[in-house]
From TrEMBL:
Organism: Faecalibacterium hattorii
Name of the protein in its database record: MarR family transcriptional regulator
SMART domains listed in its UniProt record: HTH_MARR
PANTHER family, per the entry: HTH-TYPE TRANSCRIPTIONAL REPRESSOR YETL, TRANSCRIPTIONAL REGULATOR, MARR FAMILY
Gene3D superfamilies: Winged helix-like DNA-binding domain superfamily/Winged helix DNA-binding domain (1.10.10.10)
Domain HTH marR-type span(s) in chain numbering: 24-157
GO terms classed as biological process: response to stress
Gene Ontology molecular function: DNA-binding transcription factor activity
InterPro entries tied to this protein: HTH_MarR-typ, MarR/SlyA-like, WH-like_DNA-bd_sf, WH_DNA-bd_sf
């Protein structure tokens, strides 16, 4: 029999209708809330229609603008198939985010280049992400932020 005044031993820690506070579930909840905040800042910055994959590719092209980037580089970088990358790049080209430029030495090869519109969208998206980071990190003290990052990195390494 349970001693309700002291709750020693036999009583369940949570009533059966309450889920346990397990780490993966809590991380998932926090992740969902962070993505809602990202979407809010994306709307405020006018980039709500940019898909995450399009932004990752625009970001890759932005940071590698001084070197030639080809479709195979995107396939390798993001571990996605040729047909998937082809479809993504065609849509990005139709939306005006990228251009495919012919390479003089090989007519079959097309260099991927970020357009001015693509670069502007990338910068707005990065602004949204910085706003989100500032908002989230502002919820904790500098010491708590450092500890959270340390623990998240430890979890990431252990789960690899």
């Amino acid at each position: 029999m349970c001693d309700e005044t002291t709750n020693h031993g036999c009583c369940e820690p949570n009533p059966p209708w309450e889920p346990p506070q397990v780490i993966p579930a809590q991380m998932r909840r926090v992740n969902n809330l962070i993505f809602r905040k990202i979407n809010q800042f994306h709307r405020e910055n006018g980039v709500e229609n940019v898909t995450p994959m399009h932004d990752w590719i625009m970001s890759y092209l932005y940071w590698h603008k001084e070197e030639p980037v080809y479709q195979r580089d995107i396939e390798r970088e993001f571990s996605i198939t040729r047909s998937t990358v082809t479809n993504i790049l065609q849509l990005m080209e139709r939306k005006g985010y990228i251009e495919r430029q012919s390479v003089p030495r090989d007519a079959r090869l097309k260099r991927l280049v970020l357009t001015e519109e693509g670069a502007l969208l990338h910068e707005k998206t990065m602004h949204s992400l910085h706003q989100t980071d500032e908002f989230v990190s502002g919820l904790l003290t500098p010491e708590e932020n450092a500890e959270l990052l340390r623990l998240l990195n430890k979890l990431r390494e252990g789960l690899r």
